[in-house]
Design brief:
- The chain is mainly alpha-helical.
- The protein is 55% helix and 9% strand.
- The model has no long low-confidence stretch (mean pLDDT 85).
Amino acid sequence: MSIVESVLVVLHEHRGELLTTSEISGQIDNDVDDDVDLEDVLAQLEDRQLVEQGEGSTWTIAGDPDRLRRVYDSLRTTELFNELYGAEDRDEWVSTE
């Protein structure tokens, strides 16, 4: 499970609550994407209107439940395809010209 997916699951399980970044971090798999900053992930999710920031560094799930389900399903589908066929190599798709 990706860090994005893990964050969304934790916040969904605690919908209606404000969780601190530390509380979120404590509930996700520490082995997931160690090189990714949780604050950056939360900021990106906020830009996509999937989470909302409360006071300080507290966060909650946001948005329409159906939209959140579609996002989650899309993440799971991508993960399944990556497991079956291997992850895409961005460099193979980007032209160097």
